[in-house]
Write a structure and sequence with these properties.
Elements (H helix, E strand, L loop, with lengths): L2 H11 L9 H7 L7 H14 L4 E7 L6 E6 L6 H8 L21 H7 L4 E7 L6 E6 H7 L10 H6 L9 E7 L2 H4 L7 H21 L11 E4 L2 E2 L14 E2 L3 E5 L2 E9 L8 H7 L10 E6 L2 E7 L15 E7 L20 H27 L13 E6 L2 E6 L4 H9 L3 H13 L3 H10 L13 H17 L4 H8 L9 H10 L6
Parallel strand pairs: 1-6, 11-13
Antiparallel strand pairs: 1-2, 2-5, 3-4, 3-5, 6-7, 8-10, 9-10, 10-13, 11-12, 14-15
Helix pairs in contact: 2-6, 3-5, 3-9, 11-17, 12-15, 15-16, 15-17
Length: 510
């Protein structure tokens, strides 16, 4: 056997081929993990918190297409071997048991969060009594050499932008340059481009205020500054307000861990001042911030959602219901927490408990609105406005549509063919199945639905909007139109929706 045959046989004996991914291709794929700018920067803040930082400085540096974003902390910093490992994609197996304080999971956060926003990320870091060490991923360089070459030089601009680190005894700085997805085509002299850039900073401020609100309060709290201004925490639960209802806390055991569920029903707007009401609404508004708030290690993952339970959707009636859920990081896999830490799904085994808790919290929240809205409904039938009228002729009873009803008048006014509309209304009146309704109601009284029975609040409010528009179109003021609306059948049956409508239109009650 020749020497070449021996080598060939040895190669055939190996039961696998090495197939490493192409660096230039994979690194571009790593940019598509679904990060938005606020969630990407939150991943960097997670690392700073885990490093024990007490202060975090975030700076948006405007320079047109050369703009940059810098995050600096006073955490423990890293030595060179730790930095190299931190810069390696996929440093942590998500199935491994981690430090309970760890806010990461996949070992991808620093890299994928950075790559999603920029083509050049530099990390400079120092431990106490140690010099600064640095490494840089430059995606353009990787594309050119098609190799995972981690650069040892950071460049003068990155060093200048992160010079605050040189004044700290220890800490880490992350510098994002080549922000191709944020400022591509931006012109330094353009006021509009500059305004757009800093408006993104406002979105980041709101996001971090919500995600880390529990870190930003209390003694020895974390301090985060954005462009020199301290980020103030956004408390979604108004825990210290006397009118906030604290419902019973439940601790659910799952997979040898405890899931703590703490429901709150917030005060009606009449119980808090306008500024607090505006602030507590959050970035998405009152209606979209109702539901479950999922926290992992006190860090907010889901800022209010009904998690697909029982088909519940955001409705004004339940906007005071907010439920805090605390998870340990050992349940990341069970809750399907994603890389961006912005999605989570309750495991099947907990859904019944969450539905039960959610149902009770929603009931209490709706009761507040119903009680508050009950005074909006007229006391007697004399103030009611009905669509159908009962009439009598020669001792016979029949029913007619009220032609003076605002909606009927509005449709009639806008209809080009009045004769067809008149014919349609007469057909509806003449074919109203009164005998069938009577028999059915007598034989199956529990099977007949009342007005809007089973309808969502959004459906009722949509009809209210049309009726209100019809009233204002005839010259009624907002408050007068609302006074007519709250006496218009069947709306007096829905005081909670009337209250929501009142607040939505900012109508002064009379």
């Amino acid at each position: 056997m020749t020497a070449s045959q021996q080598v060939g046989n040895r190669a055939d004996a190996v039961p696998y081929d090495e197939a490493p991914p192409r660096a230039a291709s994979l690194v571009e794929s790593l940019r598509a993990f679904g990060y938005e700018l606020p969630t990407a920067l939150a991943d960097l803040v997670d690392n700073s918190i885990f490093a024990g930082a007490k202060h975090i400085w975030i700076h948006f540096d405007w320079a047109g297409e050369e703009s940059a974003i810098v995050v600096i902390d006073d955490g423990c910093g890293m030595g060179e071997p730790t930095l190299l490992e931190a810069m390696r994609p996929g440093t942590t197996n998500p199935r491994e048991v981690r430090d309970p304080r760890d806010l990461g999971r996949f070992g991808l956060g620093l890299k994928t969060a950075s790559f999603s926003q920029c083509r050049k990320v530099t990390v400079r870091t120092r431990q106490i009594h140690s010099p600064v060490v640095a490494r840089c991923w430059d995606l353009d360089h990787i594309a050119q050499v098609d190799a995972w070459q981690l650069l040892k030089t950071c460049g003068d601009r990155a060093a200048s932008l992160s010079k605050k680190l040189d004044e700290l005894p220890h800490g880490t700085a992350v510098v994002w340059e080549k922000l191709d997805r944020l400022v591509k085509g931006a012109v330094t002299e353009s006021d509009q481009d500059e305004s757009n850039f800093f408006s993104r900073a406002d979105c980041v401020r709101d996001h971090l205020a919500a995600v880390y609100h529990r870190f930003l309060t209390g003694p020895r709290s974390l301090q985060i500054q954005l462009n020199g201004n301290a980020i103030k925490p956004w408390d979604p639960f108004l825990e210290d307000e006397p009118a906030t209802q604290h419902l019973p806390v439940e601790r659910l055991r799952f997979n040898d861990a405890i899931v703590e569920v703490r429901p709150f029903v917030l005060p009606h707007l009449s119980k808090i001042d306008a500024e607090m009401h505006h602030r507590t609404a959050g970035a998405r508004g009152w209606d979209l911030h109702q539901g479950f708030y999922i926290y992992r290690n006190r860090r907010l993952i889901i800022p209010g959602d009904w998690l697909g339970l029982k088909g519940w959707k955001p409705e004004g009636t339940y906007k005071l219901a907010r439920i805090r859920v605390d998870l340990p990081n050992s349940l990341d896999l069970a809750w399907a927490i994603d890389v961006t830490k912005s999605k989570a799904t309750p495991p099947r085994e907990l859904r019944a408990d969450f539905e039960r808790i959610g149902l009770h919290t929603r009931s209490v929240a709706k009761r507040i609105y119903t009680q508050r809205g009950a005074r909006l409904t007229p006391a007697g039938d004399e103030n009611r406005l009905f669509l159908w009228e009962q009439r009598a002729r020669h001792d016979h009873i029949f029913y007619r549509l009220n032609r003076e009803h605002p909606l009927v008048k509005a449709v009639s006014k806008e209809c080009a063919d009045k004769s067809k509309l008149t014919a349609l209304l007469r057909m509806i009146e003449e074919t109203l199945p009164v005998p069938l309704i009577t028999v059915t109601d007598r034989e199956k009284p529990d099977r007949t639905l009342g007005p809007f029975e089973g309808a969502r609040s959004a459906e009722i409010l949509a009809v209210m909007e049309q009726a209100f528009a019809a009233l204002t179109a005839t010259g009624y003021s907002g408050s007068d139109a609302f006074n007519r609306l709250r006496g218009m059948e069947p709306f007096p049956r829905f005081p909670a929706e009337l209250q929501t409508f009142l607040e939505r239109h900012k109508i002064n009650e009379s």
